[in-house]
């Protein structure tokens, strides 16, 4: 919360690391500073308890943060209980780390005085108005956040004490300019290479796998053949779109709606405008004076079209005597629009300024607004009334759907009868291959929940889209387990054939490598000069291997590397030094390295403290 209070911190990177520390502290709230509790512990750190309530509060705060950051993606991820469990575990570890730092700071005798806290509050920009501390604003923000002043000061005291320790460690980290420059030069290095591809496909076609080999592989790799937990569903679906197709609307109903809402079907008045534009250029005063002189000439009886042809800077309309187009209200700039719609037919305006320059506007003609004929909007009205009837029917049936599925929770038959639709079913599916029509986070979560999957009860009403809901129940459930050999035999055969093909391709690559080292010159190499690490037109495995190979001396360095479907023989001919390493790149790398070093220092501190502490997790969360 007080991200800008950074007493004792050093540099941007240290501040970034400390933000994480402060946020993790804020998750825990201030309850631990307001007295003891009898809540069950989620963890104990050297006898100090982290309660389940503190963990839950921190977990919910982290969930809210991730929902804001990830949006709909988090909704999909949160359908997996294992993912949420991993988040809660990471939050607990963060709270343990905070507790270890607090204990270390206390053991070292670190303290924060009342004066330091007062100064931190007064210098916090969130509590300032026009650069000065505003006590009323301070009190209002505390009330909004739900803090009492004393509890807030206690939180700050612990937070600032903790930062004395972390800032002292992280703030001492630095990166030498030569270190960053060396990395920049290494990253900017390019290499001249040649390579031969050995495709495994021809060897795959001749590979032979016996039943015994398949059985041996299956027995030795049981963990590869675990089938996920699967369910098939029955469900009752209500979709307003389906009802709209069967909601007839008569011509009389449409006509009655048209007459009742006739004001909606009146077209806007349109006006045909002409103008003379004087663009300001570098002298706005002269341009305005010229436009005012044009108005005087019009007042004296001059012809508008002739003046437009002679004076308007809008050359296209000038050729037409200044004529523009038909405009509805609100189309043109406000000042132009206001002047045009204040004129009577045949009148011209005074000088009007817009972003384009100075205008003299004339109203050539008026097309009054007219009521759109019923036949022109009949289809649109019928569609609107069909949608309205469908939505009304949907909400009426949704209420029955919710009531009946709750009152008769062990079947969907009564629910389907109550709403007049058929029960639909799905094939077996896992969390990773949900049918597309039902693949919504809330539905997946419900399908694999204890209530639906294990107890066999109807779910609550689940919204798939606006005005589109379902109630589900499990039709069939299969626990996770090992698939039978017959189910996976074909895939094992394919895998073993590919292994044989890869072995043969590797042998061929090694043979070619030997020929290259022996000086063979008749091989069809692909050559790449100044190959960069981030090249997109060469296989990543070839690039990775090329930059691992040692610098050649008098002859090329040759090696092989495995690819997705075969091998490659690589000949490294030359290593080229980086070109144009800029100061900006070096500075960026310094910051990145500093961040990495600081992060490693912080993790090392936590690991060291934890290794010498007694941390217990008495309650499995």
UniProtKB/TrEMBL annotation:
Lipid bilayer topology: Single-pass type II membrane protein
Domain PpiC per the UniProt entry, residue ranges: 268-365
Cellular localisation: Cell inner membrane
Keyword Cell inner membrane: yes
Predominant cellular place of this UniProt entry's protein: membrane
PROSITE patterns given in the database record: PPIC_PPIASE_2
MF terms (GO), sorted A to Z: isomerase activity
InterPro entries referenced in this protein's UniProt entry, alphabetically: PPIase_dom_sf, PPIase_PpiC, PpiD_chaperone, Trigger_fact/SurA_dom_sf
Superkingdom of the source species: Bacteria
Keyword tags: Cell inner membrane, Cell membrane, Chaperone, Isomerase, Membrane, Rotamase, Transmembrane, Transmembrane helix
Transmembrane segments: 12-34
Family classification: Belongs to the PpiD chaperone family.
Protein name: Periplasmic chaperone PpiD
Lineage: Bacteria, Pseudomonadati, Pseudomonadota, Gammaproteobacteria, Alteromonadales
């Amino acid at each position: 919360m007080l991200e800008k209070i950074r007493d004792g911190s050093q540099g941007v990177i240290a501040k970034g690391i400390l933000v994480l520390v402060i946020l993790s502290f804020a998750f825990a709230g201030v309850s631990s500073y307001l007295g003891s509790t009898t809540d069950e512990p989620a963890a104990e750190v050297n006898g100090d308890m982290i309660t389940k309530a503190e963990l839950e509060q921190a977990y919910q705060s982290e969930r809210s943060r991730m929902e804001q950051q990830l949006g709909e993606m988090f909704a999909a991820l949160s359908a997996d209980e294992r993912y949420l469990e991993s988040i809660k575990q990471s939050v607990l570890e963060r709270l343990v780390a905070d507790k270890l730092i607090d204990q270390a700071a206390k053991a070292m005798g670190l303290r924060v005085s009342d004066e330091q806290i007062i100064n931190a509050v007064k210098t916090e920009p969130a509590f300032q108005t026009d650069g000065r501390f505003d006590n009323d604003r301070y009190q209002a923000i505390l009330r909004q956040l739900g803090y009492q002043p004393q509890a807030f000061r206690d939180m700050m005291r612990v937070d600032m004490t903790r930062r004395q320790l972390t800032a002292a460690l992280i703030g001492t980290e630095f990166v030498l300019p030569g270190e960053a420059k060396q990395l920049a030069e290494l990253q900017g290095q390019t290499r001249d290479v040649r390579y031969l591809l050995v495709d495994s496909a021809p060897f795959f076609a001749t590979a032979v796998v016996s039943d015994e080999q398949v059985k041996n592989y299956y027995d030795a790799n049981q963990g590869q053949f675990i089938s996920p937990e699967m369910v098939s569903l029955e469900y009752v679906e209500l979709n307003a779109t389906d009802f709209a197709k069967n909601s007839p609307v008569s011509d009389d109903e449409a006509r009655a709606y048209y007459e009742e809402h006739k004001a909606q079907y009146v077209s806007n008045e349109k006006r045909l405008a002409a103008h003379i534009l004087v663009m300001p250029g570098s002298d706005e005063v002269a341009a305005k004076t010229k436009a005012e002189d044009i108005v005087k000439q019009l007042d004296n009886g001059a012809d508008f079209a002739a003046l437009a042809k002679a004076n308007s800077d809008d050359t296209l309309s000038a050729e037409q005597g200044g004529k523009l187009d038909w405009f509805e209200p609100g189309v043109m700039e406000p000042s132009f629009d206001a002047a045009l719609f204040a004129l009577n037919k045949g009148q011209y305006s005074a000088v009007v300024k817009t972003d384009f320059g100075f205008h003299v506007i004339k109203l050539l003609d008026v097309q009054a607004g007219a009521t759109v004929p019923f036949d022109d909007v009949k289809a649109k009205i019928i569609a609107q009334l069909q949608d309205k009837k469908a939505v009304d029917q949907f909400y009426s049936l949704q209420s029955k759907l919710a009531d009946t599925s709750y009152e008769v929770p062990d079947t969907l038959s009564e629910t389907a009868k109550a709403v007049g639709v058929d029960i639909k079913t799905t094939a077996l599916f896992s969390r990773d291959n949900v049918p597309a029509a039902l693949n919504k986070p809330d539905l997946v979560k419900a399908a694999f929940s204890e209530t639906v999957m294990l107890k066999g009860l109807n779910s609550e009403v689940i919204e798939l889209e606006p005005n589109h809901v379902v109630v589900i129940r499990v039709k069939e459930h299969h626990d996770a387990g090992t698939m039978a050999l017959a189910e996976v035999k074909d895939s094992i055969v394919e895998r073993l054939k590919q292994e044989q093909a890869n072995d043969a391709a590797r042998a061929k690559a090694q043979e070619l490598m030997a020929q290259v080292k022996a000086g063979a010159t008749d091989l069809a190499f692909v050559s790449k000069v100044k190959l960069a690490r981030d090249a997109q037109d060469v296989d990543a495995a070839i690039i990775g291997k090329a930059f691992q190979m040692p610098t050649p001396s008098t002859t090329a360095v040759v090696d092989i590397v495995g690819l997705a479907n075969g091998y490659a023989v690589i000949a490294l001919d030359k290593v080229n030094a980086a070109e144009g390493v800029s100061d900006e790149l070096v500075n960026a790398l310094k910051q990145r390295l500093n961040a990495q070093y600081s992060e490693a220092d912080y993790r090392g501190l936590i690991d060291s403290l934890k290794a010498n502490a007694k941390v217990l997790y008495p309650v499995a969360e």
